[in-house]
Design brief:
By secondary structure, the chain is an alpha/beta fold. The protein has one domain: Purple Acid Phosphatase, chain A, domain 2 (4-Layer Sandwich). Strand 1, helix 2 and strand 2 form a beta-alpha-beta unit.
Length: 330
């Protein structure tokens, strides 16, 4: 009798064993108006993503009235195709100016504390989460693919951003202005230097590398940008990739950073419901692949190849069209 019990136990254990998933699919995007048609959710669901990442302008709140912000988030939660994704796919995210509450907003925004809590409600953050007690929406997550680990780090470039000036041509870079705030800087340093992950995705509402336009970007905060690049190099973090939004375009950018042993890629996906059609504002000498001026979202496909981690990133649009693709190995 004991032999039969042992045999049954072995069979049950074997049937319940799930080998590590060797492919991880992550979709991401930004710039989503609740008052516009949202044609991409059905296409995104066809990719069977394991994760969706909001990169900001998740709604267009643009108000000091918290009731307005909450109503617009609720409208997005009620959108039928997004409801389907939310029921099947984990959702994480950060914000940018329009969902923060003010166009080009910074730390002077008067209801930033209240806006933070409303945004975290939208993202399904638990009421007792430590994230609700900090000064900003930044956070991190770890995901497994095979025997590899992917770390997602989401930054907050609004809550503690110093004000900067602009003229008729655009923003004027300010060498003393900071974009993250010291507490977030120390947190980011710990996230990178203590990490054992095989790849790192760092998300920001604003672009890091492109600097030839005069709209909002990390380059308007040159000391912050150089501090960021130095932190990447000093930390020796593996496989860092940047994902950004804001610009109403899609593009991939590649830059060699002193001290980094591999090129730094930035994948910008922006314009889920509306996109730019003016190419003259989008000069980028470091762009690789096509400039996308149609509605788009980003898609990562990570695969554990044993000795290496292979990453394919695509920008996709309506009807599943692929605009551009880049492959990287770490």
């Amino acid at each position: 009798m004991k032999k039969y019990i042992l045999l049954i136990s072995i069979i049950v254990a074997a049937s319940s064993f799930n080998p590590p998933k060797k492919i991880l699919t992550i979709a991401f995007g930004s710039c989503n108006k609740t008052t516009e048609a949202q044609p991409l959710w059905k296409v995104i669901m066809q990719d069977n993503p394991d994760l969706w990442i909001w990169l900001g302008d998740n709604i267009y709140g643009d108000s000091n009235d918290t009731a307005v912000l909450r109503a617009k988030y609720n409208a997005q939660l009620a959108q039928e195709d997004y409801k389907e994704l939310l029921a099947k796919v984990p959702v994480i995210g950060t914000w940018d100016d329009h969902d923060y509450g003010k166009n080009d907003g910074n730390k002077t925004y008067p209801v930033r504390k209240e806006s933070l809590q409303i945004a975290l409600d939208f993202l399904g953050e638990k009421k007792n989460s430590p994230r609700r007690k900090q000064e900003g929406i930044y956070t991190s997550y770890n995901y497994k693919v095979g025997r590899k680990t992917i770390k997602v780090i989401l930054l907050d470039v609004r809550y503690n951003q110093d004000p900067i000036e602009r003229d008729s041509k655009g923003y004027i870079p300010n060498a003393t202005a900071d974009i993250l705030g010291e507490t977030q800087w120390k947190w980011l340093e710990a996230q990178l230097k203590d990490s054992k992950a095989d790849a790192h995705i760092i998300g920001s509402g604003l672009q890091f590398i492109p600097n030839e336009h005069r709209t909002e970007m990390w380059a308007n905060f040159p000391s912050s940008l150089q501090r960021f690049y130095k932190l990447l190099a000093d930390s020796k973090a593996k496989g860092v990739m940047l994902i950004t939004g804001d610009r109403h375009i899609g593009e991939f950018t590649k830059k060699d950073i002193p001290g980094m042993s591999y090129p730094l890629y930035e994948f910008t996906s922006s314009g889920m419901t509306h996109s730019s059609v003016n190419d003259t504002l989008n000069k980028n000498s470091l762009r690789v692949g096509a400039l996308v001026t149609r509605k788009n979202y980003g898609l990562f496909r990570f695969e554990d190849k044993g000795k290496t981690l292979e990453v394919e990133c695509s920008l996709k649009g309506e009807d599943g069209v692929i605009f551009t693709t880049e492959k990287v190995s770490y």
